[in-house]
User: What shape does this take?
Amino acid sequence: MGLLTFVFRLPWLPVQGFVKLASVIKEEADRQVASPATIRRELEYAERARASGEMSDEEVAEFQEAALAEFTQAQRGTAAEPTHEG
Assistant: This one.
Protein backbone atom coordinates (compact mmCIF):
# COMPACT_ATOMS: atom_id res chain seq x y z
CA MET A 1 0.00 0.00 0.00
CA GLY A 2 3.05 2.29 0.15
CA LEU A 3 3.04 2.74 -3.63
CA LEU A 4 -0.61 3.74 -3.61
CA THR A 5 -0.03 6.32 -0.88
CA PHE A 6 2.99 7.64 -2.74
CA VAL A 7 0.90 8.16 -5.89
CA PHE A 8 -1.66 10.19 -3.97
CA ARG A 9 1.02 12.19 -2.12
CA LEU A 10 3.04 12.90 -5.27
CA PRO A 11 1.19 16.13 -6.21
CA TRP A 12 1.90 17.56 -2.72
CA LEU A 13 5.67 16.93 -2.75
CA PRO A 14 6.53 20.30 -4.39
CA VAL A 15 4.45 22.10 -1.75
CA GLN A 16 6.20 20.22 1.04
CA GLY A 17 9.58 21.07 -0.52
CA PHE A 18 8.64 24.74 -0.74
CA VAL A 19 7.55 24.81 2.91
CA LYS A 20 10.82 23.19 3.98
CA LEU A 21 12.83 25.67 1.88
CA ALA A 22 10.92 28.60 3.41
CA SER A 23 11.66 27.24 6.88
CA VAL A 24 15.38 26.97 6.14
CA ILE A 25 15.46 30.51 4.73
CA LYS A 26 13.65 31.88 7.80
CA GLU A 27 16.06 30.16 10.17
CA GLU A 28 19.06 31.59 8.30
CA ALA A 29 17.55 35.08 8.25
CA ASP A 30 16.86 34.89 11.99
CA ARG A 31 20.42 33.72 12.60
CA GLN A 32 21.84 36.64 10.62
CA VAL A 33 19.61 39.19 12.35
CA ALA A 34 20.66 37.86 15.75
CA SER A 35 24.34 38.02 14.80
CA PRO A 36 26.37 40.49 16.86
CA ALA A 37 28.40 41.28 13.73
CA THR A 38 25.27 42.49 11.94
CA ILE A 39 24.31 44.75 14.83
CA ARG A 40 27.87 46.08 15.03
CA ARG A 41 27.82 46.97 11.30
CA GLU A 42 24.51 48.78 11.75
CA LEU A 43 25.82 50.75 14.71
CA GLU A 44 29.03 51.62 12.83
CA TYR A 45 26.92 52.85 9.92
CA ALA A 46 24.97 55.10 12.30
CA GLU A 47 28.21 56.53 13.72
CA ARG A 48 29.55 57.24 10.21
CA ALA A 49 26.25 58.88 9.28
CA ARG A 50 26.43 61.07 12.38
CA ALA A 51 30.05 62.01 11.61
CA SER A 52 29.18 62.95 8.03
CA GLY A 53 26.10 64.92 9.11
CA GLU A 54 23.55 62.61 7.46
CA MET A 55 21.93 61.83 10.82
CA SER A 56 21.38 63.97 13.87
CA ASP A 57 22.28 62.86 17.38
CA GLU A 58 18.61 62.17 18.11
CA GLU A 59 18.22 60.05 14.98
CA VAL A 60 21.34 58.06 15.85
CA ALA A 61 20.06 57.49 19.38
CA GLU A 62 16.71 56.24 18.02
CA PHE A 63 18.55 54.02 15.53
CA GLN A 64 20.72 52.57 18.29
CA GLU A 65 17.71 51.88 20.50
CA ALA A 66 15.88 50.17 17.63
CA ALA A 67 18.93 48.06 16.76
CA LEU A 68 19.37 47.01 20.38
CA ALA A 69 15.67 46.16 20.73
CA GLU A 70 15.78 44.10 17.52
CA PHE A 71 18.89 42.28 18.72
CA THR A 72 17.47 41.45 22.14
CA GLN A 73 14.18 40.31 20.62
CA ALA A 74 16.05 38.08 18.16
CA GLN A 75 18.18 36.66 20.98
CA ARG A 76 15.08 35.84 23.01
CA GLY A 77 13.47 34.24 19.97
CA THR A 78 16.46 32.06 19.18
CA ALA A 79 16.89 31.07 22.82
CA ALA A 80 13.23 30.04 23.09
CA GLU A 81 13.19 27.98 19.89
CA PRO A 82 14.52 24.45 20.02
CA THR A 83 17.11 23.55 17.43
CA HIS A 84 16.08 21.12 14.72
CA GLU A 85 19.49 19.59 14.16
CA GLY A 86 19.72 15.93 14.23
